[in-house]
């Protein structure tokens, strides 16, 4: 079959959808497959690619974005005699001819589960379009079994046409140390690390409360490093940071080069991920891959990813988080043990495995077609 990936995320963003799209396409190019893949994106890749690319640029004129999505793109895909269209951003594909099968990827259902964490138009668009998108989909892929459970809870008709394919780990994430990298970003060991968009769902306030309590209790040397871009509804979080009596020990490095991330993970004393909800929780896997002890919330997909390689706490409990941080700070042996367990757990994840499972879904669709 000819399978088109709608890969605008490669050119328009850098967060989770971008990572998934980049890595699944790269991994599919390195496995044996019966299918022909076409990559639809805004800009042509600067480097030679395995798969054919179909660049459809954005033109900054009123109404063009909708025209591109609803008319130009479907017409070009029909002309290329595409059999399947994959939408990794879970919002479409739209207006395709009936004979073209649709595959939609669901990263999470937070606009439906936690509307208070999203701006109104995001909630509204999901409620308006998602039910019809899912009904028209020949298959729905999710990034974890937990996300699939959420999907079936909201949309029971997806039970027999959905599959969970866990994400993989980028090979750059491995134990590596380089003091010059930390110096370049103003990070001073020892430090506790949290990576993710600064927004209410990430539960940064509980982490800040735990940090303040431990600093007041021990007057220890630890720095708290919050690595991530500013997200929506984050004003209260930044105000809470400013109001901390230990503001000088809270560090927000801002933008960090991707190549520097393994060092920042590896040299942290503890990685903390207190999020209220994650469809997958890629930073947990990245941290385990770097051998840093991982302390994460015991909710949503996070135990599915962390397994025995992480320690868990109630995301609503400052006390539980403080207790674990105290134990880890006082016990190098416990930190070493958790680092080893994390590496062992991370070894079970690979993008090659994700690609093979994804390609097998297309095999099933091809069999139904014939």
Describe it.
The protein is α/β, with parallel strands linked by helices. It folds into two domains: 2-168 and 350-363, Glycogen Phosphorylase B (Rossmann fold, 3-Layer(aba) Sandwich), CATH 3.40.50.2000; 179-346, Glycogen Phosphorylase B (Rossmann fold). Helices cover 43% and strands 15% of the residues. Strand 6 (139-142), helix 6 (145-154) and strand 7 form a beta-alpha-beta unit.
The helix fraction, in percent, is: 40-55%
Q: Any idea of the CATH class of the largest domain?
A: Alpha Beta
On the 0-100 scale, what is the average pLDDT? 92
Tally of helical runs: 15
Give the SSE layout.
Layout: E1 2-6, H1 9-12, H2 16-28, E2 36-41, E3 52-55, H3 64-79, E4 84-87, E5 101-106, H4 110-113, H5 120-136, E6 139-142, H6 145-154, E7 162-164, H7 179-184, E8 191-195, H8 204-218, E9 223-227, H9 235-243, E10 250-251, H10 261-266, E11 270-273, H11 282-289, E12 294-297, H12 302-306, E13 311-313, H13 318-330, H14 332-346, H15 351-369
Parallel strand pairs: 1-2, 1-4, 2-3, 4-5, 5-6, 6-7, 8-9, 8-11, 9-10, 11-12, 12-13
